[in-house]
Design a protein that fits this description.
It is a single chain. The protein has a two-stranded antiparallel sheet. The protein is mainly alpha-helical and 116 residues long. α1 packs parallel to α6 and α4 crosses α5. It is built from six helices and two strands. 58% of the residues lie in helices and 9% in strands.
Length: 116
Amino acid sequence: MDRKDRKKLYKKLDVAFSKYIRKRDGHCMKCGRTDGGLQCAHIAGRRSLSGRWNEKNAITLCYFCHLRWSHQNPLEFTVWLKENLPEFYEEGLRVTKTTVKNLDLEALFKYYQSKL
């Protein structure tokens, strides 16, 4: 698979994963909001392929809680996460220390598509 095809597959996989996480949670994990504006928020950044499509490295947050709270107050977000969703906090820590090679992107895409 060439670089261009890989990039397209990343994008399709990102969309499918985001839809799956929002469907799985169904509401903002911080404030409980269910109407529009729900987003997939990663605990450890998406740069790490070990966490980019890891179900325990992502939660659903509304627009406000995602961009105006977790991104602008990362320490407060970390404390909240540790207290309220410790399994996600632990996975976020693990993901930052893990390197992944030879990920089967096609299989991951099919997996998340099947969950929608």
